Amino acid sequence: MSAASTVRPLDPRLLRYARASAVYVGLTAGFGAVTAGLVIAQATLLADVISGVFDGASGGRAGAGETTGYGWALALLGLVVTARAGLAWGQEVAAQRSSAAVKASLRQRITEHVAELGPSWLGTERRAALTTLVTSGLDALDGYFARYLPQLVLATIVPAAVVVCLFTADPLSAVIVALTLPLIPVFMVLVGLATRAQTRRRWRALAVLAHHFADVVAGLPTLKLFGRAKAQARALREVSDEHRRESLATLRIAFLSALVLELLATLSVALVAVGIGLRLVEGELDLRTAVLVLVLAPEAYLPLRMVGTHFHASADGLAAAEEAFRVLETPLPDRPASESSIDPGKVRLTVRDLEVRYPDRDAPALAGLTMTVQPGETVAVTGPSGAGKSTLLAGLLGFVTPASGQLLAGGCDLDRVDPVAWRAGVAWVPQRPYLLAGTVAGNVRLGDPEADRSQVTAALARAGAADLDPDRPVGERGAGLSAGQVRRVALARALARVERRLATGRGCLLLLDEPTAGLDPGTEEQVRAELARLRTCGVTTVVVTHRPTLLPLADRVVEVPLRPTPTSRPGRPFAGALA
Ligand SMILES: Nc1ncnc2c1ncn2[C@@H]1O[C@H](COP(=O)(O)OP(=O)(O)OP(=O)(O)O)[C@@H](O)[C@H]1O
């Protein structure tokens, strides 16, 4: 988190990224103004009632007729108290609704932005930390919306209104309040500065914990096999301890700062009370004014004190919002114009002297590659491990941008092609296919959301997965299926898309990364036959493979040579299972 992008009490970015917050701030300002009026009305009526009772008692005229003088005030006081309770209820409802709307809006924007930034950006990020941010991280904004923001508004409106009212009643007390009030914000700023650094440390500790935990859980079988599970449990305990220490440090600051603000407000009110008492004894002040000032003075300090208290409840939310803005402000890859009419399956693909680099790497992942793929052609890409074959497919998918050289689709730079329209015409089977939790059919329908059951079954059969029940549940990342089954479902997903594109008269670019790895010879033959059929249908196919059985299918074989061994640059600190 950069110091430059610090979240202010009311960050304009929050209003920009979540429109619901703007409506809420307006509503809260309205609630604040009405509350200020009710606070003054309540104090005035209370002073009327109390002085009325004392006047009646001292005059010995506490008869039924005299009570009616403050009887009205008493009834009105009841109304004001009820109105304040109603207002508090309305404020709470508005706060919860707005908070839910803002969180939903931020979550959606982050998800969309991350999707546009693409896998190459995601590769440089801590995924578990991102997950924590989008889930429990943003939930912490509740405290900010429901507690802090309303108090902040009250703290700007109520003290000003109270001081003006006090000035008309007793200027001396008004001056004392006006002089002592600014001390509270000064202390709050000091406390805020200390808290901000602490909250960031806590947030970082939480992110490290989430990252480490996700890493250990994912690698548990490996760690167990190599006898490192116990060591990891110890490491996890250390990371949790760090998080606990940071949380307690934050709480310590919160309690101490609440104490300081409370003390300051109490001393200030005591100062006003002493002045009032002395002047009341000397007869310089009437009882009603004295009571009014005594009731009103603490109301001037209360909202400011509460801002300090709620600041800590909202600090986690603000830290999460700051992190959310960092993600949202990551610039998208520069795409000067968006050409959306190109059909990936019907244009010539030209790769000219292509070089691709990943962040934190000195050596290019792919360098000096030149090749062409004519529409309807099947091109096999081979080469040693690490040569950059998958990187070439990532380039054709628009996931990485060339460091130099060109990637052209029908003569148009791929950078200038609308990525959404382009990817809609591409079917892809990655080297490590990713299945989402759900069912087999649900995963196949990612390729063609309109596919009915018979089309799903047909796609599975063409991918050599006729044995897989479409309703079979699939766990996270394809858990519950064998590696070969995952690959065949991924293939069926790609084939479903190809089929839909062909059925609607459009072309399709099929990108396959080792599509038959891990398959038995019978299934491999089935897949080979399907690829041969697609070739006759005019589907443009780029297949990365080492398998001799797939090579005869290709119109051309392109060999990607291995470059000198890449070296790593020191990257971001990483709390992985082996760290
Ligand atoms: N996300 C990444 N960040 C940094 N470096 C990467 C990333 N992905 C790949 N590389 C590096 O880029 C180079 C090319 O990787 P790529 O996966 O394209 O090779 P490949 O030819 O497909 O290898 P294989 O045949 O083993 O799948 C390798 O040196 C690899 O370490």
From TrEMBL:
ABC transporter domain boundaries: 351-579
Localization in the cell: Cell membrane
Membrane topology value: Multi-pass membrane protein
Matching PROSITE patterns: ABC_TM1F, ABC_TRANSPORTER_2
Ranges where the ABC transmembrane type-1 domain occurs: 27-316
CDD domains linked to this entry: ABC_6TM_AarD_CydD (cd18584), ABCC_MRP_Like (cd03228)
Organism of this sequence: Actinopolymorpha rutila
GO cellular component entries: plasma membrane
Positions of transmembrane segments: 21-50, 70-89, 148-169, 175-194, 253-281
GO molecular function: ABC-type transporter activity; ATP binding; ATP hydrolysis activity
GO BP, sorted A to Z: cysteine transport
Keyword line: ATP-binding, Membrane, Nucleotide-binding, Transmembrane, Transmembrane helix
Pfam families: ABC_membrane, ABC_tran
Record protein name field: Thiol reductant ABC exporter CydD subunit
NCBIfam families from the UniProt entry: CydD
